[in-house]
Fold these 4 entries.
Entry 1:
Amino acid sequence: MAEDNEFAVSVVTPERILLEGTASEVVLRTAEGDSTYLAGHSDLVGAVEPGVLRVAGSGVEGGELRIALHGGFVQVESSPPVADEADVGEAAVLSRGRVTVLAGVAELAAEVDVERARAAFERAEARTSELESERRTGGGEGEEPAAGELAEARAALRRAQVRLDAAGSAEHA
Amino acid sequence: MAGGQERILRRRIRSVQSTKKITRAMELIAASQIVRAQARIAAARPYQQGMARLVVEAAAGDPVAAGRLLGTPERVERAAVLSIVADRGLCGGYNAFVLRATERLLADGRAEGVEHRLFTVGKKAQGYFRFRHQPVERSFTGMSERPSFTDAREVAAAVLGPFVAGEVDQVLLVSTRFLSAGSQRVEVRQLLPLEDPRRPDGDERPAGETEAPARLGYTEFEPDAAVLLETLAPRAAETAIFGALLEASASELTARQRAMAAATDNADELVKKYSRIMNRARQDAITTEIMEIVGGAEALRAGAAGDEGGLVIEVGS
């Protein structure tokens, strides 16, 4: 059963609910840096940067769960309305708050295909440096499409990095 | 000749029967996929609801910034229109209803002097608008039956881009809503600006939501509510597009199942009808044959009798 310092947490993607449970600590990356949410946090709505989301709590297997998060939003509610079907235990957890993370794309560390992510990382790295050197030497004509491509390559690089971070740490744990 | 007609009908029956097998199979396939499509609609709901909650919070956090992104624009001069249909036909009036509604919307726009930029999903829309010389800014195909969120993102990026860049005042969506397994409806909805959650009907908040506004105004924003809304609004619209794609795919499958069930029934009827005509033709042929044989035998006998008679007459005369 949930400990005293635990609150409700859910990670939701458009295609499914990735995680629904309780936690004592949620760490994620916002525009201003890594943020940690504990029980009793005040109401907050924020944008989440791509990064590794860490959920720690007694209900989580191995004490900590890692999720590769490719941007999204977080909502912290200090005391959300209790759902109709919630039993007393759940109501107690909810009274300590709820953290909802909405992400377009997110995967559990255990689900990350490390080899694919590594290959994508190398590909994106090569593409980024190629475009960057092209930009330095070339310039002038066709600069704008190159800028878009560069941004895309950088985003791909970031995605692969996040996946590897999540998976890599899971391996060490 | 009567035998020829019979052969033609037999061939016809065989062809209808094999068509029936195909329509029957399509009906069953569609029926099995509807369940999955409905499950995907249900699975997408928590995310949509979460997004809606965020929009409520952020809108309350900065009502001024929300003014631009929420509600109905006062003046619409340019609008983007996204029309969602299927890649394949054989689904009754499903595609036609949406395309006609889109066409009507564009015609109304021309009458009122609104400049519309058209985006489409589905192969059927491509052909339809090309034939009518209606320029389509971008069309997407290959996602109508099983849309993924990545597909929705791609569509959203193209359709919402002009709004974010300030090139259009409004983004409209024409698609089929999946209300239930028995009821789907073509609807024109506004994607952006977002529907104003603060005033769902007049100034009254619907009952049961009384809890939410109590906390409003005490929420922190990271970044500022205004900045957050700028990034949130396209994401919320993207979520709406994904929801619309899912509902459209479920509606398409339902329409296909219904159309194919009707086609299968019709094939049964045709087989029955053709069998009757064929049996009658065969019976006719048999009757004619018997008549010919009987007539021939009669003629032969009459001929033989006639010969005798002739002889008799000859003798007689």
Entry 2:
Amino acid sequence: MLTYTIRRLLLSVPTLLFISLVIFLLLKLAPGDPMAQVPLTVPPDVKERMREALGVGQPWYVAFPKWLYQFFAVEPLHFVDAAFGTSLGEGQQRVISWQTRSPVMDIVIQRLPQTLWVVGVAYVVAILIALPIGIYSAYRQYSWFDNAGTFVAMVGFSVPPFFSGVLVIVVFSVWLGWFPSIYDTTHKVSDWESFVFQLKQMIMPVMVLALQITSQLSRFMRASMLDNLNQDYVRTARAKGLGEKTVVLVHVLRNSLIPVVTVIALGVPAIFGGAIITEQIFKVNGIGQLLITAIQANDLPMVQTLTFIFAVLIVLFNLVADILYGILDPRIRYD
Amino acid sequence: MTDPRLSTEQAELATTPRSQWADIWDQFKRHRGAMWGGAVFLCIILMTIAGPWIYWNDPKFVPTGRDFLELRDTRPIYVALWESSAKVSWAYPLGTDNLGRDTLGRLLAGGRVSLAVGLAAMLLSVFVGTLIGVLAGYFRALDGVLMRFTDLFLALPLLPLLLVAVLLFRDRLSGLFGPEGGTFLLIVVLVGATSWMQTARIVRGDVLALKEREFVLAARSIGTSPPKMITRHLLPNVMSPIMVSATLGIATAIITESALSFLGFGFPPDFPTWGKLLFDAVDRMELYPERVLWPGLMISLIVLSVNYIGDGIRDALDPRIRGR
């Protein structure tokens, strides 16, 4: 297992390098000039020097290794500096955003908590709802509950988040006026009232994200339970007189959860991608919204960093899913 | 003593051999969701195709002067039911937008574009997926390379890259093919090029399994060439997963196109698609929720119906279920 993990980790390095090269080359084609916002009174030769300082116009085989060095050596050093008060990365050029002229990673770290809060809570809520629904639907297959669950799940992954989001805003904040339609990220939780407000503003984005995840997960859970419920070991468990609760919730559930856990792990990066749209609807200024504004403002270093972070998440969680599968299912041995 | 009913049935079975497709159709008909889905899907397609000929308002017409003030921001006709002072007109059943353009007309025109994008992107993605899947499954030498390539595509963060790519190539293609044609081509190619991976994997798996079967061995022993083998023996046998991923591909393509339009990276402003209509209406949804609801409802309905059709086709093509 350990050798497998190490091998997969090593294999993911060339994959990520290649992906970052693809992203890099794609962005190299981008039109747009970081000096477009600089006042016209700045003389052209100064502008040229500023461009040089930002590294624009270098051929890719110079720029790409430099970016790699910045991203994988300088940025971690600065991170260590910030965490422990050392000065390892002092004087080294960081990846600078063209929009704000401040380091890209600082902005990403500022924005990350908002995304993690909304996405994380939504994911947990969705899992908590989806698993019981899946289990009960499978246990009472073709009952009215199962049929209703199938229909709701079908609707859940057919309604795109940009419609369900807008729909809940129209219903809950325009017609009923229960929740605010804009997520206030400057809001701080200090007492009970502010906590209630935080809950209220989180309900709608979480609901929209959770609906999609729930509908997929509950289907997976149901299918996985159905696969296991007809197996011989279930009959054996019943035959030796175990209670129905033990049979379903211990024997069947534990076996059925194996594929579901990997699906949960695989879904994490997709959720970050999906959150781009949800953040845009509820004006959550997380990393998805950061990406959209960066693309619109032609802020290439920011776009590159964010896209690469998404790629890292995908590769990482693929690895996590594979390893989890190996750990949870003793029948699976990678060698 | 023989049961007369049974014997006639047997006779019927003996005289009229049923084709496989008739069986599949019978099974498909039994899937209620799929039948409803198919009906809704056909209805929407007919509406968007025939609508602009039957419907009286021109979606591109923008009134000017006094007409503009009179026609803009008309509410849908049903609003009069609960709000007697609302500005409604029978000539504009779903109202008009803030420029006085007819909402229903734009909805129909937008549907044409959305569906065209969905179908074209699906065809492209199914073609690429099948090609790569069959090549990887049939030719051993290509398998490793093509499957690593597929894995690589699966590891790409698609939505961010789509957004970047739209931004990069929109202006260049607009110059070549005009703003509408260029964007259409760009979105179809992008969506098609980023959604073929599942099809490729499934087709490769099926081809790998089929390759070991006796009929393939028999075909090879009489000297069938690889291209003939693929088109005559392998492709017909992997039709069912291809058809399922084709139906589901329409849904993915429509959702992706709408998402791009919704984020402001889609078609040019005066060119309606469902996602674009939804995006334009979001700013004023407090006053005019209907402008958000209708396009969103259309997208959801079409995706829902396509998903149900996919479900039905999957069941109908599965011989283990079909016999029951």
Entry 3:
Amino acid sequence: MDKLLNIALPKGRLGEKVYAMFEAAGFDCPSIKEPGRKLIFENEATGVRYFWVKPSDVAIYVERGAADIGVAGKDILLEYEPDVYELHDLAIGKCRMAVAAKKDFRDNRARTLRVATKFTNIALKYYNSVGRDIDIIHLNGSIELAPILGLSDVIVDIVETGATLKENDLTVVEEIVPISARLIANKAGYRFKTEQINGLVKKMREM
Amino acid sequence: MNESSFAGKNLSSELCGLYGSYGYVRYKMNKFEEYDLYARNKDFLVADSVITFTDTNGKLMALKPDVTLSIAKNCRDAAGEVNKLYYDENVYRVSKGTNSFKEIRQLGVECTGEIDDYCILEVLSLALKSLQAISPECALDVSELSVISGILDGCDLTASQKRELLKRIGEKNLHELQALCEAADMAAETVSLLKTLVASYGKPSDVLPVLKTLLPGHPGLARLETLTGALGSDAVRIDFSLVSDMSYYNGVVFKGYVGGLPESVVSGGQYDRLMEKMKHTSCAVGFAVYLDLLEGFAAPSAAYDADVLLLYGKADSPAKVLAAAQKLTAEGKTVCVRKNVPAKLRYKAVVDLTEGGACHG
């Protein structure tokens, strides 16, 4: 079996921050900083192999065992519910999953609430927990448009600073759950690379 | 690759032989079961969806999504007796990835009746041998549910709080476990103990002595020590994050993993609570081996479709072609007989009967 620890990193700014944390913890891989389009980098000396993947795909790589560990946003973990271990909250990429609506929105409980979102599962679970009947409108982007154009009453989306909402005359109505980047591990991979994974998690927790 | 063979072995017959050698009797089942059985025990099933149809007598039937429920239903309680069964059946479940129904080959062992620790040890040992038959690189993780449930039952928790805590325990999610325990006003020592249990993972000889100092005299830990000691294998680990559904399972539960496979290939434990729900006085322990997970794994794809491509023409009589093919197979070669060279066939050599049997390497 492959002895290197396979680590799926989310492409983009968050992934770069995460790599910096791994590097500071002693799991560096200098080739990752070389310019180019390469996606896989390994360093036998530190026993790691990194690969860049689309942030929403990290959990799939880890659940399916292509990566032993990875870093995924809590939003992705709540939405797709992959069967993985969630070993550490890296406390970076912090934001919140929230319900937002037009500033003059008032919930009329006499009718079904129309909710536009990318996060169908999170929205369904949230409204189920508060006993509200909803109609889900699944969108893939520009969610903020939905209430402005009357497509939905509210949206369920990630809110970081709230600037996009403000610019579109929307406001947070309810906070659902705080979001941050989490270190996840494949359940089977954990069995066979226990010391490597526990060692890495320990160092990350000490940071 | 056939799903019942792994790394060139016929795994299912090897495992059936193993279970038979310990006196387990083959249990052959009907493909269908009344839907009501699954509707009443939905939480026991791995996936919610079941393929249903109306039988000729109007009864709503289902294609079996699970074998254990049927065995538990048909179990006969008799004082002092133990029934040992194994099965090799197809079940029908929704595959997580495709969200469509899939036929899954499942092999397993069930032991019902007056179950004692020997029966549990025997089942654990068979689970371990099953894993070792699949791959020498394997791990059998064992837990005793009474250890975690004892702690949770001692706290004043609502059903939803307990469910959320068990979810975090199963994820080894210590940061959220801590937050939930604090929100539930659990004592700091209890939270610390719970976190230590969940974080502990390793060989029984490393893990159990530490835990025994935290939970002195706990019968669950003593039981684990006895059972894992008797198994005496480096592949056995203790893992308290194994929290199978406690409304069905109790006591010893376990999962088995093999290197290179992303999920557990063996899963089992004691399910006395399921038996109670079905009004049985018997206890039960068993496990399933998910053969479908082995499909397409570890077998390198063959470099060639055939050793020899045997070409013949219109002038060659069928008897001559057959004799040439038989000669090659008798030499232990695989042969593919064609009139023309197939576009995608990969072969090592060509024997062309139109050229008098000339061989091109």
Entry 4:
Amino acid sequence: MARYIGKRLIYMILTLALIATFTFFLMKILPGSPIASAGKLSPEQRAVVEEAYGLNDPLPVQYFNYMFNLAQGDLGISINQFKGAPVTDLILSRMGPSAQIGFQGMVLGTIIGILLGMIAALRQNTWVDYSSTLIAIIGISIPSFVFASMLQYFFGLKLEWFPVALWKDGFMSSVLPSIALAMFPLATAARFIRTEMIEVLGSDYITLAKAKGASGSEIAFKHAFRNALIPLITVLGPMTVGILTGSLVVEQIFAIPGIGEQFVKSIMVNDFSIIMGTTIFFSVFLIVVILIVDILYGIIDPRIRLSGGKSS
Amino acid sequence: MEKILQVKDLELSFNTFGGEVKAIRGVNFDLYKGETLAIVGESGSGKSVTTKSIMRLLPENSAEFKNGEILFGGRDLTKLSDKEMQKIRGKDISMIFQDPMTSLNPTMPIGRQITEPILKHQKISKAEAKKVAIDLLRLVGMPKPELRMKQYPHQFSGGQRQRIVIAISLACNPQILIADEPTTALDVTIQAQILELMKDLQKKIDTSIIFITHDLGVVANVADRVAVMYGGKIVEIGTVDEIFYNPQHPYTWGLLSSMPSLDTSDAKLYAIPGTPPDLLAPPKGDAFALRSEYALQIDMEQNPPFFKVSDTHYAATWLLHPDAPQVEPPATVVERMKKFPGSRYYEGGAVYNGR
């Protein structure tokens, strides 16, 4: 196992280097410059500023400088959004709110999604099943920002249960954005669990469990559930992506001082180092999630545990 | 002999989009204590459905009992609630399925799969249940059972998995063991081992077995009595010798003729022509009449009742009616009948025991 994880870590570093390289050159191809939007500067002043940030160096030099700093964990400093502040600090200080709504959304969505999917499968072709499917379709097809606005309108403006867009009331402020983020994992989990449960419930070992005298709930929870979870774990990765991309917009809508909000703003003002830093941060996060998913796989499915064991 | 299970006039239908499929159309048989009753027939003849209806394992929303009763221990199983059935399943009646590769839960260690029915049906501690499970594994011939308990199904071969399924089925010393084609998915050498094991175990724990198969070779090997099913009915029932050496129903003749044997000299193997009847609209008379070269006019119109051949042997064919014309069975069947005392072709000598 340790060797397996070690091998994976090396791949992770390689992947990150590739992502950093790719993003770096993409950023350089983009028109505009961080300084262009910074106000009216004379060409001489511009040249001075560009020189100060090393933007006049030849591209390969810039690239190697960047990668060298990155290897030491230095993501550079903000060029115009938070002039001079280290990007690492900016990201860390903004991580709290993002992590909170992301985590709440993911947990809420997955748990409710699994429950909905289970109930739908156990009550197949009844109104329960149809309404659960409907919720899943809505969750997949309505983008999170539309859903977020609806939540703001009904629960914020009309009912006044939660603040519309104010990050001051701690947990209360996080409820609506978490729900908005939860819709995607909820819908995904519900669909996957329903399909898989129905298939598992029709399998031979479920009939054998029945023939042993197991009751309906024992069959559903002791025998079917774990087997139905396996494909859901596969989509945990994409679900996390959904949360990440969703949070970019949702944070903007709910005025949450999170990474997503900062990311969007930094793109608008071309703050090169923040864009790079956030992209790399998101990538690290995702790659770690994928590793966790693979380890989870082994815990839930013994067949995979063993074949992974060959490399340990 | 003591009757342990009685199936009387059982009729069962599946409600499908296409209409009502009459899968079982009046099945009668008794199961005696300690015997092995084989149910043979081709796919779709209703043999699996019959046994699954005894266990009530058919989908509740589409399968429906139309008539008849299944008497076990003084109770009619068709009328029991789900809760009451759960107490019988796995304890008094247990089942072995066709495909051992899929009948074990892939994410549960086999030890827990064996102890599950024990803990469910007996007041016994987990540690004791574990001991019972280890003994069961030893009984079915699994080497190093203590180590094997923690392993998962994918770490066993097909034959070993079927041994585990057998161990599960025997966990509570059932009175009836239903084996639904338990050797069909296994290769021939493993088949033989599993059959030997089942015969051994039956002697040890004195259970009655209903053995479903379409393999007549297996029947000859394990069965005391044989019921031949066709089109949702039993068409002939008798001891294994009576069915193999004095068959009366044209369908049984067809089955026996299509079985290859060592002395079959002809290059071409006989096959019954035609296809099984459509049970959405079952034929009026004898369901086999349309495929039978021995069919009489009355076979098309009226369902034949059971005619008694001996105390243990009954067949549902109009050919046994006193007014029916004498017909000559196929040559291979006549060869068999020559060896059976009491058949009209008997030429003397002892009967070949089916085994």
